[in-house]
Amino acid sequence: KAIYRHDMVSQRTFQEIQKEIARYG
Amino acid sequence: DVAKAIIQLAVYGNAQNRSYDRLALLVDTIGPRLSGSKNLEMAIGIMHQSLKDNDLDNVHLEPVKIPHWERGEESAVMLKPRIHTMAILGLGSSTGTPPEGITAEVLVVHSFDELKIRASEAKGKIVVYNQAYVNYSTTVKYRIQGAVEAAKVGAVASLIRSVTPFSIYSPHTGIQKYEDGVPKIPTACITVEDANMMSRMASRGVKIVIQLKMEAKNYPDTESFNIVAEITGIKYPEQIVLVSGHLDSWDVGQGAMDDGGGAFISWEALSLIRDLGLRPKRTLRLVLWTAEEQGGIGSFQYYQLHKVNISNYSLVMESDAGTFLPTGLQFTGSPKARAIMKEVMSLLQPLNITQVLSHGQGEDINVWIQAGVPGASLIDNLYKYFFFHHSHGDTMTVMDPKQMNVAAAVWAVVSYVVADMEEMLPR
After folding, report:
1. Can B318 be counted among the known catalytic residues?
2. Alpha-carbon distances, residue B327 vs B1, B35, B330, B332, B411 (angstroms)
3. Can you tell me the ipTM of this complex?
4. Residue B128, C-beta contacts closer than 8 angstroms, at least 6 positions apart
5. How far apart are CA B257 and CA B324, in angstroms?
6. B237 Cβ under 8 Å from any chain A Cβ
């Protein structure tokens, strides 16, 4: 199910999300 | 390098000008698409088939009830101090005049405050508002409430200066609202030029008389549809990124800019992703709204039907402020979500469109945003947008295929990446 909902805390650090997004570029 | 692939295809590749060409075909064929009109009905039918032909998933129509107002023939002729036929556009949901029209003296005011001060002079008159243009969101209240405020002081009709920063004798229509318990008087927009002229005449003490004829009529609500098409998510299909624009328009020009452009770059975003064979983790849902111009009527009924699933909406997007060259993305959401969106927009560096501004909004998505869902909209040259907004100038001639290519690329990159990231945007 969804990893992150507004009532849950993100499982990942911002740096991890940054890296993830960078891979789309 | 998904972002580059989308940009390449949309701006330099085979999909160049596709959104423009598709839009031109529809609005040249159908013309403008007023809520409750046959034109809108036909446009919905055409779009429904086109989306199925485009091999999108789950293409379907969701029935809604929408207002049905018809303009009919209308005219305004200044009889005194001289004969002058004025360009007007009745305002949406206005009542009509008796067949012989309303002939009355004019009271020119420049603000609601001035109208209150001069209330005793308004009885039996046509109130003309020559309000200064500040910006659209501030000044539009005159168009929306002008008739009600005038009726409260006994006026028989109201004529509102068009809400636009620039005019070449072009009336700009739009919705207006009556109030329970206040007489419903006919109301129409006039040109900036005529409003200014009557203001000068009145300041010289000249008596102005106008004959106003309007066949406008409100009919019972009628059935219409929001159109839905998707690219189903492959990992979290129940989670959604909503990409949208509205298919209806006012009965002026071709309804190309407002909001044909927004509707067609939204379709283009899914087409680009489909062409590249991409399938995001979450569902990308395209919605073409109906009856936005009457106050987000179709979209509110979509919200009522789907709000039970609100926690699965990662982002809602609407393009309804023009598809000229975008200067950035307007965004409403938490600081964390904004930081993520800045990363997403950095992928558009090749187009030099990386700004994330505030005020992500749209008549059709605001209800979701107010309920806590992150929201995004495109920002472009709004000054130019309001030149043509709700006027006969809203035609394909103001649209630029190259600019639409870029707007579609931005829309596709943002919607795809947010739909494919491992986590939903934080609230």
Report:
1. no
2. 23, 31, 10, 16, 12
3. 0.84
4. B106, B107, B108, B109, B158, B159, B161, B190, B195, B198, B199, B208
5. 9
6. no
Mean pLDDT, rounded, for B58-65: 98
Judged by a CB distance cut-off of 8 A, whether residue A4 touches chain B is yes
Position B415, amino acid? S
Looking at residue A9, what is its pLDDT? Answer: 56
**For B11-44, what is each residue's pLDDT tens digit?**
999 999 999 999 999 999 999 999 999 999 999 9
Residue at token pair 């030029």: B193
Distance CA B108, CA B208 (A): 9
Rounded alpha-carbon distances, angstroms, from residue B26 to B32, B42, B245: 10, 10, 15
* Cα Rg, chain A, nearest whole Å: 10
DSSP track, B263-281: HHHHHHHHHHHHHTT---S
Q: Which of A3, A4, A11 to mutate to test the interface with B (most CBs of B within 10 A)?
A: A4
Chain A residues with CB-CB distance to B372 below 8 A:
6
Contact residues for B75 (Cβ-Cβ < 8 A; gap 6+): B85, B88, B101, B211, B212, B213
Instruction: With CA atoms as reference, report the closest residue to B242 among B346, B340, B365.
Output: B365
Beta carbons of B326 and B384 less than 8 angstroms apart: no
> What span, in angstroms and rounded, lies between the C-alpha atoms of B263 and B273?
16
